[in-house]
Each structure stands twice: as structure tokens, then as C-alpha cells.
Specification:
The protein is α+β, with helices and mostly antiparallel strands and about 180 residues long. The protein has helices at about 35-45, 95-100, 120-125, and strands spanning about 15-20, 25, 25-30, 50, 60-65, 70-75, 80-90, 110, 130, 140-145, 150, 165-170. The longest helix is centred in the first third of the chain and has 12 residues, at about 35-45.
């Protein structure tokens, strides 16, 4: 974990600070798929399109415009557990599904971290950098309050490494993408 990086704490624009450990904006983890889709359409004013994961009945994902993806999971009994995770920016595993990365429209976490924030800024707001360099993604991985992860443009030895994507998931979720 790097703690020797020095950067000012980012200024948070509360209108954009919606990538939360507990959900997205006013939409909390655990809501049903229908509730989540309705709330996200109202929050962002764009269509939300649902798609089940291949071979799955109760698990899938929804795209919010061209900038955000949310996941819905199910339990081992085949019941839907609701909204469980979100993904913003790229690269991430969604590239294969979506055919490209998600667009950055300036959304941030509650501590002001967004796509383009430096590793030094992540550390300045109390984030911890762990995970080193990943050969599959070519980026370091960091966690904010153990519920938000991000990929970096370079190894964590580079304080100028920039956040390229962010993901969040419900802590203690009862299920994980069970089909």
C-alpha cells in the first residue's frame, strides 16, 4: 500500500458525486430490477436497457445510456436479489459484452474520485492502493472503503497513474451472479 503520495484532496461537485458504496445516486443496492430501472431512468433522464447474462434467468445487467452499467444478481434458489453492482468507465470486463468502453460523463465517488483522478488523489482521500500490476488489465487496482474499486492506467509505483474505470458492489451481498 502506497502512503507516501502527496496530492491535494479533490473538490467534490455534489451534483456529480453519485458513485456510492451503497449504490448510484439515490438508487440503493438491493432494490428490485424494476424499481432500479425506473429510478435510474428518472435520475439520469436516459433509457435503461436490461439484458440477462447468457444462460441466466435471474441475473443480468442494464446499461444506463452509454456511460453506466448496473448488475442484478440471483440466489441459489433462482430468486432475484436485486441491484448489486455498478460499473463506470473503461477498460473493464464489460468491453466484450458492450463492444467498447463506457463513456466518462464526469461522475465521481462521494470523495471526488472519478475517471482521470490520479493515484495520488486516491491516496489523499484515504483510498488504499493495493493489487500491483495486473497482466490481464495492465493496470493497478485500488479500493475505496472496501466497496469501490478502480483500475489505473499504470503501475502503482507511478503516482501520476490515472483512474480509468470504477466499480462498486453491495458489501455482504447475499448472492453473486448465480444462474
Amino acid at each position: 500500500e502506497r502512503t507516501d503520495l502527496d496530492a491535494p484532496i479533490p473538490t467534490v461537485d455534489s451534483a456529480n458525486a453519485i458513485l456510492r458504496a451503497g449504490g448510484v445516486g439515490g438508487v440503493d443496492f438491493g432494490l428490485s430490477r424494476a424499481q432500479t430501472i425506473t429510478a435510474l431512468e428518472a435520475e439520469f433522464g436516459v433509457p435503461v436497457t436490461y439484458q440477462p447474462f447468457e444462460g441466466c434467468v435471474t441475473t443480468g445487467y442494464a446499461t444506463v445510456g452509454d456511460f453506466l452499467v448496473v448488475e442484478f444478481w440471483g440466489d441459489e434458489e433462482g430468486d432475484e436479489t436485486g441491484f448489486e453492482a455498478w460499473h463506470y468507465g473503461g477498460p473493464n470486463w464489460l468491453e466484450e459484452i458492450l463492444g467498447g468502453t463506457l463513456n466518462d460523463i464526469g461522475l465521481t465517488t462521494e470523495s471526488g474520485i472519478g475517471v482521470g483522478s490520479s493515484l495520488a488523489e486516491v491516496v489523499a482521500v484515504g483510498g488504499s492502493a493495493s493489487g500491483g500490476y495486473d497482466d490481464n488489465w495492465g493496470a493497478g487496482i485500488w479500493y475505496e472503503n472496501q466497496s469501490i474499486a478502480g483500475l489505473l492506467s499504470a503501475d502503482m509505483t507511478d503516482p501520476a497513474a490515472a483512474v480509468t474505470s470504477l466499480s462498486g458492489g453491495r458489501a455482504g451481498a447475499p448472492a453473486r451472479m448465480v444462474c
